[in-house]
């Protein structure tokens, strides 16, 4: 019985060691899962901070260049107004001459024989 009791005691010790090992493995898995969650949340925080800083940079860039866009638009509008005024001025100064030339061409009639008709004669 002594040997049998010793064997039973060894088996019991092995079972307890196996349970203890299973607990250790389970704790390691839980620790690993927790570390992954922590790493993901930390990475998400870093990504958000980086995104916020880049958004601020973009807004600053946009604000600094928006003024030049507006200034360019004002400049183009002024140039357009000047050119339109020049065209109106030229129109007003030349319209009478153009109308007179058109009337002269329409009213001026020089009766002459067609060139083919003169060759026949």
What does this structure look like?
With 121 residues, the protein is an all-alpha fold. The protein has one domain (2-94). Helices cover 93% and strands 0% of the residues. It has 2 helices and no strands. It has helices spanning 2-107, 115-120. The protein is rod-shaped, with a radius of gyration of 49 Å. 0% of the residues are buried. The model has no long low-confidence stretch (mean pLDDT 88).
- Series of H and E elements: HH
* Structural category: mainly alpha
Output the radius of gyration.
49 Å
User: Number of DSSP helices?
Assistant: 2
The rough form would be described as rod-shaped
Approximate strand percentage: under 5%
Mean pLDDT score, rounded?
88
- Structural domain tally: 1
Contiguous low-pLDDT stretches (5 residues minimum) are none
Number of DSSP E strands: 0
Distance between the termini: 157 Å
**Helix content range:** over 70%
Major sheet details? none
Keywords: Coiled coil, Hydrogen ion transport, Ion transport, Transport
GO molecular function: ATP hydrolysis activity; proton-transporting ATPase activity, rotational mechanism
Family: Belongs to the V-ATPase G subunit family.
Subunit structure: V-ATPase is a heteromultimeric enzyme made up of two complexes: the ATP-hydrolytic V1 complex and the proton translocation V0 complex.
Give keywords:
121 residues, mainly alpha, 2 helices, ion transport
């Amino acid at each position: 019985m002594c040997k049998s009791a010793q064997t039973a005691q060894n088996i019991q010790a092995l079972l307890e060691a196996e349970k203890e090992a299973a607990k250790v493995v389970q704790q390691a898995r839980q620790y690993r899962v927790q570390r992954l969650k922590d790493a993901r949340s930390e990475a998400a925080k870093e990504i958000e901070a980086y995104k916020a800083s880049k958004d601020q940079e973009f807004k600053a860039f946009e604000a600094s260049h928006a003024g030049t866009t507006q200034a360019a638009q004002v400049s183009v509008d002024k140039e357009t107004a000047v050119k339109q005024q020049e065209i109106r001025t030229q129109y007003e100064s030349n319209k009478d001459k153009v109308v007179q030339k058109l009337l002269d061409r329409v009213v001026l009639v020089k009766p002459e024989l067609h060139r083919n008709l003169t060759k026949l004669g």
